[in-house]
Design a protein that fits this description.
The protein has about 475 residues and is mostly helical. About 70% of the residues lie in helices and about 0% in strands. It has one domain.
Amino acid sequence: MIKQYTALALGLLMATPLWASVEGGGAKLELTHNWVGYLAIGIFVFAYIFVILEEKIHLRKSKPVLLAAGLIWILIALVYNSHDMPHAVEPAIRHNFLEYGELFFFLLVAMTYINAMLERGVFDALRNWLVDKGFSYRSLFWLTGILAFFISPVADNLTTALIMCAVVLAVGTGKPGFVSISCINIVVGANAGGAFSPFGDITTLMVWQKGMVDFSEFFALFIPSAVNFLVPAVIMQFALPSGKPAKVEGVQEGLKFGGLAIVGLFLLTIVTAVCFHNFLHIPPVFGMMLGLAYLKFYGFYLRQRSKSWTVATEAPPGSTADPYNFDVFSKIAQAEWDTLFFFYGVILAVGGLGFIGYLGMASEFVYGELGATTANVLVGIMSAIVDNIPVMFAVLTMNPEMSHFQWLLVTLTAGVGGSLLSVGSAAGVALMGQARGQYTFFGHLKWTPVIALGYGASIWVHFLVNA
């Protein structure tokens, strides 16, 4: 019996794959029914289990996917080398790495600007204004939700959610019910707002950079996104406590010198990236890198003023009292590196599964058998369970034959579908940590049917206004 199993294992290891055509008239190995394909799927699933359990085991999500990406491509390279095709893998992995490289530098510039605005107190000033006004709980619920909806298209949904949650925590002391329901509203608002802008979410950025939807065309999703936010918000507001919070003492420091100028430079950077893409037909990442030069030159200006201030006041260099003290490289260093490396692992791992042939199989079944509409609705639901980034990258890699209307639909569903669960989006995961014990998985789950109602309504409105 042992010999029979040994022979069977060796047979699987030495099994000769079938051949399949690839783009450009070349050929590649059909590995979807081979041990290499099965092992690659197993590695990816195993790694993603660790990603889902990040909050429980405190293992950064980038680590398992980085390892998975490396192992998957090692397997692919080994089997191709064993079939005397040593150069077949290199173009594919370079293509995936280029996809990642464009996303990496785009996000790095955006994160640098966000960190600069945080350091200059731009968001602190907004928070202080909201706290000082003495709004009621219901007013704060609506204000934080609406601001999350309108800020996330520029500042991204994760950063926006963290800022608005800070406001809620500052005024919601002793009211965990208010904090919980407001955080849910913020997550839904930030994800919905991010769906109608290329800068609002990683998925919309990928769709834009891939050329599936032009910059101005994203705004066709504004009304469906607004419906996605408003439907659950209107229902949830009836569960809010009455009255208004007590005035908060000891407000944090506000806007520093140069804060508004950096906001202006960030908007100019966005305009530059859009112009590069629309008029010069250059990838928008190059416009973002030019925008980083704007910030670097402004940082040089601030450093010169800092030197003059230091001489005039005889204060030590780098003094915390220095209103001009600013180091652009420290803002680059403060980028969310775990997130950036997570994207690398996801893109390379999913790209490897696509090279093996699994994404083609999935596309043939999901989009061929079920139809584009059903498939795109399921993409949104799947993004709440897995994560919208690998799901959207898989769809873009499949590149199914879809109308422009359907590409807008999958952009919408992947963007707002993550709101169905607290773990379905980066905004939700971050707020569970920031408002620990008050905003929880089960607290969010209680309102999932209401959020699902908004999800369905947004799809219906998309068909109504964009078909």
